Amino acid sequence: MKIKEALLATSVLAIFCTPLFAGQDEVASQYDLSGTGYGQDINTFAHKYIQGASPYFENRVFDQQPEELYPARNYTSQTNDTQRLLAALRRASQEDSDGGVVILRAAKNGGNNRYRLDRVDMPSNVRLEVDPDVTIEMIGNLKTSGSNQFLFSIGRSPNVNNLIRERIRNVEITSTHPTRRFTIDAKTNMPISYGVHGDKTKDTAINYTRAIPIGIYYAENFAISGIRIIDNHTEHVGISLYPDCDYKDGALADRNGTNGNPQDDVWLGRDGQPLPMDSEGNYVDDKGRIIPDEEAIIRNLTYGRTPVKGTIENIVLQNSHTGYGAVQIFGGDWIYINNIKAVKGVGVRIEAGNGSATDNINRAGPYLSSINNVEVHNVTVTKGFTGVWLKAHGKINRNITVSNVTAIDSGTAVITDKSRMNPHSRDFINGRFENLTIKGNIKLIRTNKNAGKAVAEVGNMLTYFMSPAERDNLTDRNGDGRITQADLPHNRSGRRWYLMQPTSPMIIASQRNANEIGDTSSDIKAEEAGYYPVDFSSAVVTSENPLRPELILFNEDSRNLNGGNSNRL
């Protein structure tokens, strides 16, 4: 498919065919959601948007007498401020129709400005303000597999077998100062742990330590701003937008006797019985008519419980894990993201799940937990992977705008990745982004243009776009007689993450080249499927990388590290 044809098709689709609540609106029309507690407020929310309400966060909490808390005078490693903060938030939530405000103050006369907090589940109708001199230390919960820890949780059910019935609404976490950030310490109690017991190295294992400073789930009308997160290459993003699901199979199927192979799954109908098939293996209805796989397979509706109507601004995350970063949307609608800075890792990831055969988010189908109506502006990544990374996997995502992204001594500024669901299973499709626009200044800055040192912490995907000059200088470090990713130095995130030099400002791997998109079919059986167009006609792309003159690289520019053509992308 040619570029002009594809862009015209997607722009028309975005104008005339995009559901008001993309993904979940289509699910609501397919399934009877009444009485389930899942998605019953979708139409109400869409109606408000039609009537002129802001699609992003609106402050609905007003409090003339906020409750102020102060840090413990005798701060020790045993201090725990969680319960007194939770009690204050509950009081604020119950004040009146305008909700209430809680402020974490710095010490009045100097001294300790640290709070130690375990998981804090935010109630509806509250605003938590934190003085910029305050540091919140995550307590952590170190187990054999590392530390799995939340700090602030918005709309996450405490029990996956008893999900909350109502969204958590009207929640804000912010600094008391309009420009200065308060600090979340996700490092002190989050030591790097390679392997289960830390007895391995970054060359042979990954860092299993996990920290989730802020998780947003079944929530509506939320705002997060004015925060600096000090990370320790922990295996998660700083601010995560994820469905509040039951974590069971995203597609209703009987896996008994399949040995975990999704191609052998027996799909169940609404009555719990196997779906009927014809002699050629197609799903059919009770009259023998063929039903497309994506319509026949019943999905787990809990994956539609995603956050809506939110704003995330003025966030800095330091020492991020290479494969994660500052902000990631795993699923959500009408989200505004602005002024994000990541040191290492990724600035903003727009990606539902991981696309593996056992990925329950993607097994939930193309619409549940899709990502729609999102704006991302002013993102900077330093010595990291990329500023913004868009990966569709098996989802149909709509109406995404990205503008003004800067990569400093990093792999690249923007990546749009081709969809490649593998291994192929009939509950998956090759997903896509529809009406995806990249505009404004997209820059790659190299502070030391003559240095040959690899400083960008990247993942495997970017190694296929390494500059020829850097590739020619690689040596067989592991002595297996060939040049592969095993010969690259690893960074602190572990064995799947590498150090290399910057590439180009933009990598549009979702297009074959500048003039041809490729096969945009969603059919996972087509080996060349999974491409989609990107409108970057309004982007001003610049680079200060002398090793690579190209401003934009495409799928056909990918190469193996031995210089041969890559069949991976």
Give the topology, please.
Layout: H1 3-16, H2 24-30, H3 42-50, E1 67-69, H4 82-93, E2 100-104, E3 114-117, E4 120-121, E5 126-130, E6 135-138, E7 142-143, E8 146-154, E9 168-175, E10 182-185, E11 210-216, E12 219-230, E13 239-241, E14 253-254, E15 266-267, H5 293-296, E16 308-318, E17 325-329, E18 332-343, E19 346-351, H6 360-363, E20 371-382, E21 386-391, E22 396-408, E23 412-417, E24 432-445, E25 456-459, H7 460-463, H8 468-472, E26 497-500, E27 506-508, E28 539-543, E29 552-554
Parallel strand pairs: 1-2, 2-5, 3-6, 4-8, 5-9, 6-10, 8-11, 9-12, 10-12, 11-13, 12-16, 13-17, 16-18, 17-19, 18-20, 19-21, 20-22, 21-23, 22-24, 23-27, 24-28, 27-29
Antiparallel strand pairs: 7-8, 14-15, 25-26
Molecular structure report:
There is one protein chain. With 569 residues, the protein is mostly beta strands. It has a domain at 252-298. The chain is built from eight helices and 29 strands. Strands 1, 2, 3, 5, 6, 9, 10, 12, 16, 18, 20, 22, 24 and 28 form a 14-stranded parallel sheet that branches. Strands 4, 7, 8, 11, 13, 17, 19, 21, 23, 27 and 29 form an eleven-stranded mixed sheet that branches. The longest helix has 14 residues, at 3-16. The radius of gyration is 24 Å and the shape is globular. The protein starts with a helix and ends in a 15-residue tail after the last strand. Residues 10-47 have low confidence and may be disordered.
